[in-house]
Structure formats: structure tokens, C-alpha cells
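Deliverable D2.4 — example input (C-alpha cells):
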């Protein structure tokens, strides 16, 4: 039974430690915390100024860093704007008690014991100024705005006396009063107040910028004063305990009148009003109280801020709130100190929540600095308000980008991230927000602007959509997914698969050096590119694979030929080479070899039965350079277009000769061309069938045939477009212009400005134009 009780007690104790470790207060979600120092020095009590009230803005944290034995320390300054720390002293002497002004000037003491001097670092000129130079002890430093107040010990009519120094003018002043000695000065940049010993107790003295006046004259003790916005606040012993007094507008008022010892007041003024906080003690209990007076009110209203049993070692007030370090119960003892904050609307939060000692807090606006640790391991921390949503950009990949490569290869996702205070982390999702991975912060971590990247191991996918998202997290832990950082991309890491590759539809023999290469490949990508080469040759350029294949010129010579082809998809995954074979043979026409410029057109038209040649004792000839009769071309174009031709057809032309009813040539072929508007004759009744057709007539009849076969197949040239031959004829000039603009004249040998349209057309030129017409018409 006893053992069970002990186990239960141990469990309860452990649970209590866990609960105490988390503390009961809510964490300040809009404060971003930074560790400024990280070394093996004792970084001493910080002082702080920050502006504006939100965001990192401009400001400085100063402290003394213990760098050696015997109190050897140097003054350090952290610049909020540049996020950098500068050592203002490096001499290893006893530099201590730094104060920072609203301009970034830093004032501190150098030396200890019987002799110490004042120094200042002037921000505007980056110059270190020695304010005092004597063999006396200058100490008890207070700085606000441009005014420095301190106490000089020895060397004068009384043991200690308050002095001031104005930083911009470099002017000093000795405060004369009827006290026997002075101590504990305070300033708001205009006034200076201090404690003066009158031989019986301490009284409060004030210099209002003009004269020194004695504010109190009583038989009780008056404590350290605080000057704030032309008022003085201090603790006064009324014979029973200490109460808070305030001098303002020429009068002294009681702020408290109770049974507590109210001591060590601090004060602040701002757009919301005036605020005074102090430490109140009774029966061994210590609490913080706050008195506030909103703008327009005449009296202060006091309230108790804290209720915990732990000590409040140091507290700091600003126009926005009150911060303090509080001893928190930790595993049954008072061993842990945490930083607390209460804004002037009454919201209290725990700024720190750890097992370290956090204390000596200094508040400026909503921002604060403090020490963490103890002995030789104390570091400086900073918390600033973060009231804006972080955001990010995604530079790559672009929206709808296709990401390719081998499965597992890295696709770089990168961009920038920004926040009014600091970017902490960036997360990337590649599945629409289901899972997240940490991006690498390349530069700017814990600064307002960071660059980042994430190497995404691409999955195995064949043109599959993925949704990318980026979440940026600031130092408060708030994460945000900007709309601009949500985008869809395509992953294609699977190479195309072979289907088939054939030349001229799988034919084994060709009589031309130009063949049609037709590749079929399987892939998820909607667009494939191909490139080809003759075996052992140079690869051609990548080009989109057209439907129906692409023309390919074989290597010169007859005999077996091999063509290699490669294919790549939208992800640039390549496959191949795949091969196809064909044998090039000399065609039936001994004067049209496979390398002839019109060989493919001639043999394709021969295969289609559109043309024929001349049978000679030496073999068949096409005679591509010979001229072509108009009647011959009428027959050829009717064959290319597949026009119906029958013996019943007639035309108005009377110069065709006697009609052989057993032969459709030339009468019925001419009639078929006339019927569809391909020819109109040389006159209304003559056709000139046995006259050589000119190049201009040839082109005109081909253009008419194209427009007759498929209206709209030929695009009209823009008015600003100029034909190579110019406006050489009212009838044939427009058709020549249309033919050139639509590419029908590409491949004609010698075509250009010097090409004569009135020369007789050759049989090879006619074959080329007719074959081009057939290809454009889908024949």
C-alpha cells in the first residue's frame, strides 16, 4: 500500500512538472523571437530602442559583453535594420552600463572603482566621443533623447553631484542644489530629476531645463525618481509604508495610499495616455501594479497586474504595455524565470516558455530584449511584433510547365519569401497540400527577405498533372500559402515507347531520294518531337511530328538505305534511335535519277498514273527539261485532281482538232478543266492546245485548281506582302503572288526575282507543281 502511494505521488509530481513547464499563460503569438548572441561570454543587461511600434523597423539593442577576467567587457550594439552586431569597443577594459538613444547614439561608462569616464558612439558620424576626462568617478548614468545625466563622485564641494551633457551641442552642466550629495538621476530628454541627501533623508530635486528646484522637503524618505513627459514619479515613505507620488503641472499628488510598500515606479506616455507601473510588497508577497490615465482623463486608475507568488525581478514599461520577468514554479521550486507581457488593453501573454532563466527585460513599443541564462552563459534575446502575413513567390517552375527527366531526378522549385519581420521556414507540397517538405533557405533566413529552393525528386509519371504549393512561415510560427504559389505542373518522366517506323508506308523500294518517314510512338504527352538522320550521318533538328509523317531526303546513291529516328516527349525524354530500311533503285525513266530535283514528284505522279514518258530504244525517258503543251498539262491536272472525264463532255474551243471518240485526249481533258474553271482558254473559242504552256499560265492553272478543289485552301497574302516577281501582269501576277505566299513555289529550281514567268514551263516544273498541289489537297 505504501509503495502504491509513493508511485502515485511520483506520477503526480512528474505531471505537475510537465504542466508547470508549459505554464498556464498563452504564448504571445504575434511576437517573433530571435537569439542575438551565441557565444561563451556573459552578455549583460540589455537596453533597447525600437521604432516604429510594429515590425522590425529601426532600432538598436546594446549590452556589455564580458570578454575577460576582472570585469573586462566591451560594448556591443545590434542594429535591427541590418540584423548585424557591432563591437563599439574592443579594448577589453571595463566598459559597462550602455544606453541607446532614439538616433542610435550609445553612451556608456568605462572604468570602475575610483575612476570611470563617459563615452559615446555617435551614430551619424560613426565617431566615438569621450565625454569626460578626469581622475574622478563618473557613474549612475541616465540617457534619454539627446540628454545624458550622470553623477560625478569626488573632486567638488560635495561628495557627489549630478551633471548633464547634451550630445548634439557637446555642452555640459553641473546641477547646483542645496543637497549634501546627489544620486540616482533620471531624464526624459528635457528634465532631470534626482535624489539629494539633506542631512536627514533623501529629497527629490528637479532641473526643468532652466532652474533647479527642490520638489520635496519632509522628514521621510523619498526614493529613486522617474522622469517622463515633463512629470516626475517616485516612491515616498509616509511613516507607515512607501507610496507612489507624482509631480506634474506644479503639484504633487498621491497615486497610492494603501498598506503595501509601493516602490520603484517606471512610467511611459504615448498616444493612448500616461502609464505608471511599480512594485508592491506586503507580507512577503510581491506584485506589479499599473496606473493608467487615458488621453482626456484627469486622474489615474490603478489595478493589480500580477497575482503569481514568484518574484518580479525587473520590469519595463512603454506606451504599448508592460513587460517583466517573473519567477515561475518549476517542479516544486522557484527555479525558472520567464518573460511576461501585458498590453495596455489588459491582455497578458508569456513571451518565453522554456527551462532557462529569462530576465532583465527591456521594452520599447511592443518589442523587447532580455537576457537568457546565468553566470558565464548569458545570451541576449529579442522579440519584435509580427503583425503582417508572410508571403512568397515561386520563380520556377512556371505554371503548366512540363517537368521531365528520369524518375527520381530533381526538379528545382525555387523562389523568394518575405515578411515584415523575418522568414523562418518555407514548406513545399507537390500533392496539393496533402504532404509537405522543408525547402532549403539559401539566403536571408530570419530576415524580411529570403531566397529558397526545393529539389523535388520527380515521380515516375507519363504526363500527369501535379499541384504545387508553397507555405511560408514567419518567426511567430504563422504559416501562409499565397495564391501565387499554387500552380499546376505536369510531370513526364516516362520516355516514349516504340510503335512503328516506316518509309513510304513500308515500301521496300523507292525510285526517289525523298521518302515519307512515318513514326508511331506511344506516350502520354500530347506533343511529340522527332529528329532523323541517314545512318552514320548528322542528326537533324528536333521538330514537331506532323500527322502522316514527314519528308526525308535519303543519302545519295542507289541501293539499301537506313534511316534512324529519335523521338522525345513534352518532358524532353528521348527514345530511340529506331531504324527503317528502303532500297533506292533507278526508276523507269533513265533521265530522272533518284537525286534529280524533281524525282519524287515525277515518280509519285507516275505511280498515280498521272504522267507517262517516252519509250526509246535506250529505255523510257521523262525528259523533264522539255517544254509542255497546254493540252498535255490539261490532262495532267485533271488526273491529279481526279476530275471525271467522259466522251460526252464538250468545250467552246474550236482549235482542238478532230475528236477521236476512242481517245479522251485532248478534247475531253480540256473540257473537264474548263468545266471547273481551271482554264478559260486563250480566247473565248480557242485553247491553243499545241502551244507551250508558260510558267505564268502553269502557276495560274494550279492556283485555280487549288481554289476549285477546296475553296479557302490558299490564304490570301496581306496587302503589304510583296511577291518576288512583283506585279508583272494583271492576270497572272495575283495568282503568282498567291502561289508564292502559300509555299507552292518552294523547291522550284531557280525561282526568285530573276525567274522569267513568260518562259515555257518544263515538264519537271509541271510535275513539281502538280505534286505540291496533290500534297496540299491531301491526295
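Example output (designed residues):
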Amino acid at each position: 500500500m505504501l509503495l502504491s502511494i509513493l508511485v502515485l505521488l511520483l506520477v503526480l509530481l512528474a505531471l505537475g512538472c510537465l504542466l508547470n513547464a508549459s505554464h498556464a499563460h498563452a504564448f504571445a503569438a504575434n511576437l517573433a523571437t530571435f537569439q542575438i548572441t551565441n557565444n561563451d561570454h556573459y552578455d549583460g543587461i540589455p537596453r533597447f530602442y525600437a521604432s516604429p511600434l510594429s515590425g522590425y523597423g529601426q532600432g538598436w539593442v546594446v549590452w556589455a559583453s564580458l570578454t575577460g577576467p576582472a570585469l573586462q567587457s566591451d560594448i556591443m550594439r545590434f542594429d535591427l535594420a541590418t540584423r548585424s552586431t557591432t563591437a563599439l569597443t574592443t579594448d577589453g577594459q571595463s566598459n559597462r552600463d550602455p544606453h541607446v538613444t532614439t538616433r542610435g547614439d550609445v553612451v556608456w561608462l568605462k572604468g570602475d572603482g575610483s575612476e570611470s569616464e563617459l563615452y559615446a558612439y555617435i551614430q551619424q558620424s560613426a565617431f566615438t566621443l569621450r565625454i569626460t576626462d578626469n581622475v574622478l568617478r563618473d557613474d549612475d548614468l541616465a540617457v534619454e533623447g539627446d540628454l545624458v545625466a550622470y553623477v560625478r563622485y569626488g573632486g567638488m564641494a560635495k561628495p557627489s553631484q549630478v551633471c548633464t551633457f547634451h550630445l548634439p551641442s557637446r555642452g555640459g552642466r553641473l546641477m547646483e542644489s542645496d543637497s549634501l550629495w546627489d544620486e540616482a538621476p533620471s531624464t526624459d530628454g528635457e528634465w532631470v530629476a534626482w535624489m539629494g541627501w539633506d542631512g536627514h533623508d533623501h529629497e527629490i530635486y528637479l532641473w526643468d531645463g532652466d532652474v533647479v528646484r527642490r520638489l520635496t522637503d519632509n522628514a521621510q524618505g523619498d526614493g529613486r525618481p522617474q522622469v517622463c513627459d515633463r512629470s516626475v514619479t517616485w516612491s515616498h515613505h509616509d511613516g507607515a509604508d512607501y507610496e507612489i507620488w507624482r509631480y506634474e503641472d506644479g503639484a504633487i499628488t498621491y497615486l497610492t495610499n494603501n498598506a503595501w510598500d509601493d516602490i520603484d515606479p517606471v512610467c511611459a506616455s504615448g498616444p493612448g495616455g500616461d502609464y505608471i507601473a511599480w512594485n508592491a510588497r506586503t507580507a512577503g508577497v510581491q506584485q506589479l501594479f499599473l496606473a493608467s490615465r487615458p488621453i482626456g482623463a484627469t486622474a489615474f486608475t490603478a489595478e493589480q497586474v500580477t497575482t503569481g507568488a514568484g518574484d518580479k525581478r525587473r520590469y519595463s514599461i512603454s506606451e504599448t504595455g508592460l513587460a517583466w520577468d517573473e519567477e515561475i514554479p518549476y517542479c516544486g521550486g522557484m527555479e525558472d524565470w520567464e518573460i511576461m507581457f501585458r498590453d495596455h488593453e489588459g491582455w497578458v501573454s508569456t513571451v518565453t516558455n522554456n527551462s532557462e532563466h529569462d530576465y532583465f527585460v527591456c521594452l520599447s513599443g511592443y518589442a523587447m530584449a532580455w537576457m537568457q541564462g546565468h553566470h558565464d552563459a548569458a545570451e541576449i534575446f529579442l522579440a519584435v511584433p509580427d503583425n503582417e502575413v508572410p508571403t512568397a513567390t515561386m520563380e520556377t517552375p512556371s505554371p503548366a510547365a512540363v517537368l521531365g527527366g528520369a524518375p527520381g531526378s530533381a526538379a528545382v522549385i525555387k523562389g523568394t519569401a518575405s515578411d515584415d519581420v523575418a522568414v523562418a521556414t518555407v514548406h513545399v507540397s507537390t500533392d496539393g497540400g496533402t504532404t509537405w517538405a522543408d525547402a532549403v533557405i539559401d539566403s536571408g533566413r530570419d530576415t524580411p527577405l529570403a531566397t529558397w529552393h526545393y529539389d523535388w525528386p520527380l515521380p515516375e509519371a507519363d504526363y500527369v498533372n501535379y499541384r504545387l504549393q508553397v507555405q511560408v512561415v514567419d518567426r511567430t510560427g504563422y504559416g501562409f500559402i499565397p495564391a501565387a504559389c499554387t500552380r499546376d505542373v505536369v510531370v513526364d518522366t516516362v520516355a516514349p515507347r516504340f510503335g512503328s517506323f516506316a518509309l513510304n508506308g513500308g515500301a521496300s523500294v523507292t525510285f526517289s531520294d525523298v521518302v515519307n518517314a512515318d513514326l508511331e510512338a506511344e506516350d502520354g504527352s500530347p506533343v511529340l518531337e522527332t529528329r532523323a538522320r541517314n545512318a552514320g550521318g548528322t542528326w537533324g533538328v528536333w521538330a514537331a511530328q506532323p500527322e502522316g509523317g514527314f519528308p526525308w531526303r535519303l543519302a545519295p546513291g542507289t541501293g539499301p538505305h537506313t534511316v534512324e529516328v529519335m523521338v522525345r516527349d513534352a518532358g524532353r525524354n528521348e527514345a530511340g534511335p529506331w531504324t527503317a530500311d528502303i532500297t533506292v533503285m533507278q526508276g523507269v525513266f533513265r533521265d530522272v535519277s533518284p537525286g534529280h530535283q524533281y524525282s519524287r514528284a515525277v515518280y509519285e505522279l507516275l505511280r498515280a498514273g498521272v504522267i507517262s514518258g517516252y519509250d526509246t530504244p535506250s529505255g523510257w525517258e521523262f525528259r523533264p527539261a522539255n517544254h509542255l503543251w497546254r493540252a498535255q498539262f490539261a490532262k495532267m491536272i485533271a488526273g491529279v485532281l481526279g476530275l471525271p472525264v467522259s466522251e460526252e463532255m464538250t468545250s467552246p474551243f474550236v482549235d482542238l482538232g478532230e475528236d477521236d471518240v476512242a481517245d479522251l485526249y485532248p478534247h475531253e481533258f480540256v473540257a473537264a478543266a474548263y468545266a471547273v474553271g481551271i482554264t478559260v482558254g486563250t480566247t473565248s473559242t480557242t485553247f491553243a492546245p499545241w502551244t507551250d504552256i508558260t510558267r505564268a499560265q502553269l502557276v495560274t492553272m494550279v492556283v485555280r485548281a487549288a481554289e476549285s478543289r477546296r475553296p479557302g485552301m490558299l490564304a490570301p497574302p496581306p496587302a503589304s506582302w510583296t511577291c518576288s516577281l512583283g506585279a508583272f501582269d494583271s492576270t497572272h501576277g495575283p495568282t503568282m503572288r498567291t502561289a508564292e505566299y502559300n509555299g507552292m513555289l518552294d523547291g522550284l529550281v531557280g525561282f526568285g526575282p530573276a525567274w522569267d514567268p513568260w518562259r515555257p514551263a518544263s515538264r519537271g516544273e509541271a510535275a513539281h507543281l502538280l505534286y505540291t498541289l496533290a500534297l496540299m489537297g491531301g491526295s
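The radius of gyration is 49 Å.
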